[in-house]
Amino acid sequence: MSALELHGVGFRYATRSALEDVSFNVPPGHFTALLGPNGAGKSTLIALLTRLYDLQQGDVSVYGCSLRQQPRLALRQLGVVFQQSTLDLDLSVEQNLRYHAALHGMPRKLTAARIDEELARQSLTERRRDKVRLLNGGHRRRVEIARALLHKPRLLLLDEASVGLDPASRLALNRHVRQLCRDEGLSVLWTTHLLDEVQADDDLLILDRGRLVAQGRAADLGGDDLAAAFERLTRREAA
Ligand code: ADP
């Protein structure tokens, strides 16, 4: 069964179409990269997958649960890291996580155990009492990943999670998420506009102007030169 399946998903804002007939699968336990230039529709797609926006056309299922028919079951299997950080900078790492768990109605004992586990997994145990304001960008992102995984979702969505990080932290975060995928069997959908966050073995989806223009193993799509393929697929016509 696919971790995520989209069928004919379309979405329009009042004046413009943002997604047209988008269909793809994210296989379980894999790192899938969704690559697209700015304005391609990546954030709109994430907003639909998390039900921030209602589906207008098509359907989405998460591990076989339809977002239209069984939204609660579908969402329960989903963890999300949004592009804009939503951490409270003046709360500690642990307080941020506890607050999130309380909002989701997680029982106290379970919350404490899960926070311990996730902080250890993100190598953040020693920072648990620090205010988030004291953490660098890469560590803040890890706190958001820990938070997204508290309820043990099987699929993690990250919307341009590396934006704003310096190049070294960007690649470290990318490596870290790949490791979660490898070691824990987590399914990942990683959206980005940066080609160097894609590796040859990734399942790659290329989105451009609301349409999926390519999908497959990155090495197969790009041959020797993925950059040239990406450029060709997303080339803008001269004005
Ligand atoms: P990406 O995340 O790939 O940069 P977006 O999903 O943000 O792309 O945007 C897709 C398209 O939808 C763009 O043309 C963008 O200008 C448009 N768009 C995004 N948000 C809105 C909005 N709230 N209202 C109208 N148009 C929007």
UniProtKB/TrEMBL annotation:
SMART domains: AAA
GO MF term list: ATP binding; ATP hydrolysis activity
Protein name per its UniProtKB record: ABC-2 type transport system ATP-binding protein
Keyword ATP-binding belongs to the record: yes
A Pfam family recorded for this sequence: ABC_tran
Listed InterPro entries: AAA+_ATPase, ABC_transporter-like_ATP-bd, ABC_transporter_ATP-binding, ABC_transprt_ATP-bd_su_PQQ, P-loop_NTPase
Gene3D superfamilies, per database record: P-loop containing nucleotide triphosphate hydrolases
Family note: Belongs to the ABC transporter superfamily.
Keywords: ATP-binding, Nodulation, Nucleotide-binding, Transport
Keyword Transport among UniProt keywords: yes
Annotated ranges, domain ABC transporter: 4-234
